[in-house]
């Protein structure tokens, strides 16, 4: 009790081993053996491969100057020895490992490398290597195109209408019938749904007396089931009631349209070739990166614990990759992966202060695990008393003013630390500005009124959010999140923040909320700030 307000309280607690019930089991290992491994500084190596491993372990990147110093060879000699192991990126002029360069959008990288290789022969090796890792081209039999896929251009839907519904050309020529898609709202619109009145294919074969084929097609494009309602009068008020019989008929016609589109879309050879090429370019261009952490040494980690290969690779992913999700099964060692990544990030100069957001009841356990893996770490862990309103402000100030390797706080504590009002307002204002620009663009192109109305509805909801911002009653008037000095964020049990608002055209989809939990929007906003701060590498 005398020490529980001290920032080293968790270190004091780690001097004893306790069982699951909190009973004393014995003294910590530091009383009987060495628990901190001495850092070994490598000053020279024999081969370029060894130099690369040291460079990645000490600098977290391919540093040719450092590798040259280690080997005593020139940078050109080192690069030549490591040909096809490291590559110079023609865009950034920086050297990258093969697993980094030969991953991502490799089709785009290949096109870029070919352009550079025309004038600079040294990039020919890049072209050859990239050609060898291109994903296999998918053909029509391996691609499923559903009606409503947003990568299909509206002109193809119009062609489908011409051939399937036999829509007269003059209706298209006079702009009485047409198909439009709004990138802003994600909505499809079939214009002139009632212009083709005497067409039996529209009213009978692919439509009903209550919903013609054009309306059903529009619903299908927007991933909606067609529903037919009757208006009845009840207690002097009009009420809409679902007509189950007509809805079932419309549903059958909708399925017929979907099947007709599936049969039609790849029937024409030229169209098939064009769509397959576009699909491969959009969705079959990425090669995932495989991370190798075998070269990592972890100075300061206790020698009693050795990370498994999958844990080493996960740490490498966090160090060298972008924002990372650790989705291992329970018991796979995610805690140590995050702790090791945080400590290595600070040692390598990739970050200054890491913040761990964990379930409230696990803050002290996390602190214990942290010090078990890194006995010399300088950490600040929230205790139950720090969650009390009287102490919360003081605790946030300690985070901001202390030079800690890591700070461990609970989910509830994290939610109480606000972003600055200016940042919250700026984020919403930026979205509003984008919507306003899109509305002006549609008006300038004399676009359909439906598109403008959809965007105005979106803008109205953003205006409402701006007026109330996030509910400030749940925030303390303390140091803001930006002022904490945190540049790495680790969230344990992140599925607790999954209920973020998602706009979708689909109805009744289980698991997709049309409302959002405030804690989820709060974390999302903080993650956006971290992305700005770290370039998408800090979460």
From TrEMBL:
Gene3D superfamilies linked: P-loop containing nucleotide triphosphate hydrolases
Coiled coil as UniProt keyword: yes
UniProtKB keywords: Coiled coil
Any one GO molecular-function label of the UniProt entry: DNA binding
Pfam families in UniProt: ResIII
The Helicase ATP-binding domain, residue ranges: 303-537
InterPro entries from the UniProt entry: DNA_Protect_Modify, Helicase/UvrB_N, Helicase_ATP-bd, P-loop_NTPase
PANTHER family: ADENINE-SPECIFIC METHYLTRANSFERASE, DNA METHYLASE ADENINE-SPECIFIC DOMAIN-CONTAINING PROTEIN
Protein name: Helicase ATP-binding domain-containing protein
């Amino acid at each position: 009790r005398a020490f529980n307000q001290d920032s080293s309280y968790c270190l004091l607690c780690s001097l004893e081993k306790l069982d699951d019930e909190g009973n004393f089991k014995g003294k910590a290992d530091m009383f009987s053996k060495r628990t901190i491994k001495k850092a070994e500084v490598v000053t020279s190596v024999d081969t370029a491969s060894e130099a690369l491993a040291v460079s990645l372990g000490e600098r977290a990147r391919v540093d040719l100057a450092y590798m040259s110093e280690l080997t005593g060879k020139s940078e050109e000699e080192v690069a030549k020895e490591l040909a096809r192991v490291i590559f110079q990126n023609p865009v950034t002029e920086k050297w990258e490992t093969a697993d980094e360069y030969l991953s991502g959008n490799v089709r785009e990288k290949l096109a870029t490398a070919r352009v550079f290789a025309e004038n600079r022969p040294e990039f020919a090796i890049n072209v050859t290597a990239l050609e060898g890792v291109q994903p296999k081209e998918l053909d029509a039999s391996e691609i499923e195109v559903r009606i409503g896929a947003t990568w299909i251009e509206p002109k193809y839907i119009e062609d489908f209408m011409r051939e399937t519904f036999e829509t007269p050309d003059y209706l298209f020529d006079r702009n009485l019938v047409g198909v439009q898609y709004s990138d802003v709202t994600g909505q499809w619109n079939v214009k002139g749904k009632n212009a083709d009145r005497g067409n039996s294919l529209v009213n009978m074969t692919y439509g009903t007396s209550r919903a013609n084929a054009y309306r059903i097609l529009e619903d299908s494009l927007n991933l909606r089931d067609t529903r037919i309602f009757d208006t009845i009068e009840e207690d002097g008020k009009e009420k809409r009631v679902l007509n189950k019989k007509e809805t079932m008929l419309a549903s059958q016609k909708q399925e017929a349209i979907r099947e007709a589109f599936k049969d039609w879309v790849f029937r024409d050879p030229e169209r098939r070739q064009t769509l397959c090429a576009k699909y491969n370019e959009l969705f079959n261009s990425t090669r995932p990166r495989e991370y190798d952490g075998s070269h990592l040494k972890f100075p300061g980690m206790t020698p009693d614990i050795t990370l498994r290969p999958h844990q080493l690779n996960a740490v490498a992913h966090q160090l060298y990759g972008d924002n990372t999700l650790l989705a291992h099964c329970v018991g796979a060692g995610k805690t140590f992966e995050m702790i090791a990544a945080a400590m290595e990030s600070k040692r390598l100069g990739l970050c200054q202060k890491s913040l761990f957001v964990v379930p409230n009841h696990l803050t002290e356990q996390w602190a214990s695990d942290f010090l078990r893996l890194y006995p010399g770490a300088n950490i600040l862990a929230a205790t139950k008393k720090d969650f009390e309103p009287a102490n919360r402000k003081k605790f946030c100030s300690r985070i901001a003013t202390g030079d800690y390797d890591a700070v461990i706080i609970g989910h509830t504590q994290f939610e109480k630390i606000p972003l600055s009002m200016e940042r919250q307002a700026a984020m919403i204002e930026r979205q509003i500005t984008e919507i306003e620009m899109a509305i002006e663009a549609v008006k300038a192109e004399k676009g359909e009124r439906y598109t403008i109305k959809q965007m105005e509805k979106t803008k109205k909801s953003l205006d409402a959010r701006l007026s109330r911002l996030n509910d400030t009653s749940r925030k303390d008037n303390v140091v803001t999140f930006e002022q904490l000095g945190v540049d790495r964020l680790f969230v344990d049990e992140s599925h607790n923040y999954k209920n973020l608002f998602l706009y979708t055209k689909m109805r009744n989809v289980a698991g997709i909320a049309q409302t959002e939990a405030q804690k989820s929007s709060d974390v999302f906003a903080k993650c956006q700030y971290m992305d700005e701060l770290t370039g998408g590498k800090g979460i």
